[in-house]
Design a protein that fits this description.
The complex is a heterodimer of chains A (125) and B (609).
Chain A (H helix, E strand, L loop, with lengths): L6 H16 L7 E6 L2 H5 L2 H14 L5 E6 L11 E5 L5 E3 L4 H13 L8 E4 L3
Parallel strand pairs in A: 1-2
Antiparallel strand pairs in A: 1-3, 3-4, 4-5
Chain B lengths: L5 E6 L2 H5 L2 H14 L6 E6 L11 E4 L3 E3 L4 H14 L26 H4 L17 H6 L4 H9 L2 H11 L11 H10 L6 E6 L8 H8 L1 H15 L3 E7 L3 H17 L14 E7 L8 H8 L23 E5 H5 L1 H7 L1 H5 L9 E8 L5 E6 L4 H8 L9 E6 L5 E4 L9 H6 L8 E6 L4 H15 L5 H18 L5 H17 L3 H5 L2 H20 L12 E4 L9 H5 L5 E2 L7 E2 L9 H5 L5 E4 L10
Helix pairs in contact in B: 2-3, 6-10, 6-14, 7-8, 7-10, 9-10, 9-11, 18-19, 18-22, 19-20, 20-22
Classes of the chains: A alpha+beta (125), B alpha/beta (609).
InterPro entries (chain A): Thioredoxin-like_sf
GO molecular function, one term (chain A): iron-sulfur cluster binding
Protein name (chain A): (2Fe-2S) ferredoxin domain-containing protein
């Protein structure tokens, strides 16, 4: 670690570290809920979760919380995820393979366009 | 750092570690690995969260749900239920969260234990990973140091501290800014900055918690202080009984060096500062500043006469400032946010907050930080939760062996230096021992005197001999051999020791006796005149007796009695032989019929008389 000489450098460290701390707390513009009931896990939700986390890291998205929940009751289209952005109604996607997860993040989270071919339901589950 | 879906903060303060935090952490990690979640869920050990009686504690983010009294099994369940399925595990929820079983964002402020607290000294304790300098920086760490070194002159730093009205949190309440100013004015090429972490009061652990939970705040504060007074070298004097604090502080000093917050030309300025840890052997007197300096110099830790004060002639004869851990932890926020911000908490003469360690007969034992001026009642009942069994709280003892007792009728007194001083107690370092009707005041005084007799360094006669004589008199009284002259003698002795001792240890040693005599003289007199211990605590004044109406002859008491003092046939009324009884109280604990009771005065001879 090189020595910190200026306020800018200090600020940079603060911001980076804050991102990590922010991850702990729920002050975000939205969240992705991965259904991790037994059914979801059996259908591969764990790989989906990992893919989501890795891709978000890759794209440096830090204002979206990723949380796990139980079964949403849509076992036939597992793995399912729910994308809830602030000010929009939540969207539930089905058959979210790791590949599809990337598509959803790219399109829905980054570009704000719903991935219509994967949508199972709009609105509260 | 990778994105994490959940973060589990586990309290690794001293209390939780002794309650088995390590095994809980391992269980969390094991279970997370098992589910392949170890890469997306992080487990962080933090400093003390404060609710020590409910440890081990953990908070699960992003929901901010507090869990208490964790076991490895609980940890496994939390991973399976909460982390995997998003369902809160109700049986381990923190008290006060129990009524809200829905997961939602939760501010700690909604929990009564946290509601009245304002955390400045403990701002990061229990929130950040103490070993991570980045997390400290994320919470505005080292910004105060940058501001002080690049935008303020040393005089301006001192003025800010003076304006804030910060007073020594070691207990004496000397204005910190004034101390710095006096040291600044000294002409000397070498000056020293010392952090006094020789916390020795029985029942006080706030300094340890700050060092363990937020070591960087001390590194930063000492560097700011060094800049203000013109010192290049700092020492932290920690007792060897705090290995974890030493370890984390050492790590903090190392990483601060790596980042350039310690060492040569900090922030590119021409100010250089370094900190060394000095480990003390844990003698109580070494918390006294002159004895502490002798100890750092490698001499025997004994006090010397003041003046000259350390700011004039301190370590190796050079001007030295010695500040307590908690005092220092308040410095960076004051510099960063300004004196006016600090003054919005507390009172005119005692601004800011104070950390207290609640111990004894109180529900929420642990660490709390409150604005000064809060009443004792709020502190004990609203935050402390009152008596664990709902009994009457009789008094509270503040300030350890140098302090005194405050009876319940004074619980509306605001907590600040002057008010507590008026009552004959002191603010002290912040240890608060809560006493109830089962605590005998003579015995309490004796406990503290025993401590000072042990810890007296022996350099001056009034303290070395005087405290021993006082202790012997108290011992006599608790054994039922005291006279009224003894009580008078106690008062005389106390006055002489107070007036003639060399250092603070001796000067304040009689305080526990004086204050118990002031408020509870009747208890002393009951021991002497009536042969009664009102609290039924002193063994010489009590007997255990069996009520023949209630005894069913189950033999439980006879079986636990260590001296075989209880006789009786099965299904017949039992009897206690008073001569053989050592009054250990084992019988009362096992009796399921409430047939045994403690009585005072003691029954003479056997019960049949």
């Amino acid at each position: 670690m090189s020595k910190v000489k200026s306020l800018e450098e200090l600020m940079k460290i603060k911001e980076q570290a804050l991102q990590n701390i922010k991850m702990r707390e729920a002050g975000k513009r939205g969240k992705i809920v991965v259904a991790m009931g037994t059914c979801g896990i059996a259908a591969g939700a764990k790989d989906t979760l990992k893919a989501i986390v890795e891709y978000m890291n890759e794209m440096k998205i830090d204002d979206i919380a990723v949380v796990q929940s139980g079964c949403m009751g849509l076992c036939e289209v597992e793995p399912t995820i729910e994308v809830a952005l602030e000010g929009q109604e939540p969207v539930v996607y089905g058959n979210v393979t790791p590949e599809n997860a990337k598509r959803i993040i790219q399109s829905h989270i980054l570009e704000g366009k719903v991935v219509s071919d994967l949508v199972v339901k709009r609105g509260e589950v | 750092m990778a994105l994490k879906t959940n973060t589990i903060l586990i309290c690794a303060g001293g209390g939780c570690i002794s309650a088995g935090e390590e095994s809980v952490k391992q269980a969390f990690e094991r279970k997370l690995k098992e589910y392949g979640l170890d890469t997306v869920v992080s487990v962080v050990e933090t400093g003390c969260m404060g609710a020590c009686s409910l440890g081990p504690l953990a908070v699960v983010y992003p929901d901010g749900v507090y869990y208490q009294k964790l076991t490895p099994k609980a940890a496994e369940k939390i991973v399976e239920e909460h982390i995997l399925k998003g369902r809160v595990v109700p049986e381990y929820l923190f008290e006060g969260e129990k009524e809200k079983l829905t997961i939602k964002e939760k501010e700690p402020a909604e929990i009564p234990f946290f509601a009245k607290q304002v955390k400045i000294a403990l701002r990061n304790v229990g929130v950040i990973d103490p070993l991570s300098i980045e997390e400290y920086i994320a919470r505005d760490g080292y910004f105060a140091l940058h501001k002080a070194l690049t935008q303020m002159t040393p005089e301006e730093v001192i003025k800010e501290i003076k304006d804030s009205g910060l007073r020594g949190r070691g207990g004496a309440g000397f204005p910190t800014g004034l101390k710095w100013e006096l040291a600044r004015q000294q002409k000397s090429d070498i000056k020293y900055m010392i952090c006094n972490a020789d916390e020795g009061d029985p029942g006080a652990f706030m300094d340890r918690s700050i060092l363990e939970g937020d070591p960087h705040s001390i590194v930063e504060a000492m560097t700011i202080a060094g800049y203000a007074i013109g010192a290049q070298k700092g020492f932290v004097y920690v007792r060897a009984e705090y290995p974890l604090a030493i370890e984390r502080l050492q790590k903090a000093i190392e990483t601060a060096h790596e980042y350039g917050f310690l060492g040569e030309n900090i922030f590119g300025t021409d100010f250089s500062f370094d900190i060394e840890i000095r480990i003390g052997a844990g003698a109580f007197v070494c918390g006294e500043e002159t004895a502490l300096m002798h100890s750092i110099e490698g001499k025997r830790g004994q006090p010397r006469v003041k003046p000259p004060f350390p700011v004039q002639k301190g370590l190796w004869g050079k001007p030295t400032v010695i500040n307590n851990v908690e005092t220092l932890s308040l410095v960076p926020p004051i510099i960063h946010k300004g004196a006016a911000w600090f003054r919005q908490y507390g009172t005119e003469k005692s601004p800011g907050t104070k950390v207290f360690a609640l111990a004894g007969k109180i529900k929420n034992t642990g660490l709390v930080e409150v604005p000064m001026g809060i009443t004792l009642r709020e502190l004990l009942y609203d935050i402390g939760g009152g008596h664990p069994q709902g009994k009457q709280i009789k008094a509270v003892q503040t300030g350890g062996p140098s302090g005194g007792v405050i009876p319940a009728e004074y619980f509306d007194t605001p907590v600040d230096y002057e008010s507590l001083g008026k009552l004959g107690a002191i603010m002290g370092s912040g240890g608060m021992i809560v006493l109830d009707e089962d605590d005998c005041m003579v015995d309490v005084a004796k406990f503290f005197l025993e401590f000072t007799v042990d810890e007296s360094c022996g350099k001056c006669t009034p303290c070395r001999e005087g405290t021993k004589v006082m202790y012997d008199i108290l011992d006599k009284i608790t054994k039922g051999e005291g006279t009224m002259e003894d009580i008078e003698k106690l008062e005389q002795l106390a006055q002489v020791i107070k007036d003639s001792s060399l250092c603070g240890l001796g000067q304040t040693a009689p305080n526990p006796v004086l204050s118990t005599l002031k408020y509870y003289r009747h208890e002393y007199e009951a021991h002497v005149k009536d042969g009664v211990c009102p609290a039924k605590k002193c063994k010489a004044f009590i007997s255990y007796v069996i009520n023949p109406e209630k005894c069913v002859g189950c033999t439980a008491c006879a079986r636990v009695c260590p001296t075989n003092a209880i006789h009786g046939e099965v299904r017949k009324v039992h009897e206690i032989d008073q001569d053989a009884c050592v009054r250990c109280g084992s019988c009362i604990e096992v009796c399921r019929f409430g047939a045994i009771s403690k009585v005072t005065p003691a029954v003479v001879g056997s019960i049949s008389r």
